[in-house]
Amino acid sequence: MTTVEPLIVADAGRASEGWNEPQGRGVIGWQTLLSADRTSSAALTAGIAIVEPGGFLARHRHAPAELYFVVEGEGVVTLDGHDRPVKRGDCVFIPPMCEHGVRNEAATILRFLYVFPTDSFAEIEYLFS
């Protein structure tokens, strides 16, 4: 068994990855913080998503559960067809295979921490609606 050491990763404050697909997956950026294929970590995958005003992550589902924690701004999370406003300090639990998406209708940036109970981000298969 491989031993995994504790790890600290800094939020760079900017997206290093993302999608710019207004007619597809969405207009969203993210920075992966923990993923076993990039960091010496296991059991959890985490990152910071950044949604500019007017941006969104299209409705989708995936097998692992997910957690969002809003660290800045406000937005709307859709959970199984129901829109829910979210703001700084809100925590959202997304059960496995729950259809969900996020959009930023505000004039400021929306940033949220996302966490999956998987070793790496590559394990997550996004099924877009």
Written overview of the protein:
It is globular, with a radius of gyration of 14 Å. Strands 1, 2, 3, 4, 5, 6, 7, 8, 9, 10 and 11 form an eleven-stranded antiparallel beta sheet that branches. The protein has 129 residues and is mainly β. The chain is 0% helix and 49% strand. The chain contains no helices and eleven strands. It has strands spanning 17-21, 26-34, 45-51, 56-61, 66-72, 74-79, 82-87, 91-94, 100-103, 110-116, 127-128. It has one domain (23-118): Sandwich (Jelly Rolls). Strand 1 (17-21) and strand 2 (26-34) form a beta hairpin. The model has no long low-confidence stretch (mean pLDDT 96). The relative contact order is 0.26.
Unreliable stretches = none
The termini sit apart by: 39 Å
Total of DSSP H or I helical runs spanning 4+ residues: 0
Number of strands: 11
- Principal-axis shape equals globular
CATH H level: which superfamily?
Jelly Rolls
The CATH topology corresponds to Jelly Rolls
**CATH top level label:** Mainly Beta
Q: Strand-residue fraction? A: over 45%
Most strands sheet: 11 strands, antiparallel
Architecture (CATH level 2) name: Sandwich
- Give the SSE string: EEEEEEEEEEE
Overall average residue pLDDT: 96
How many domains? 1
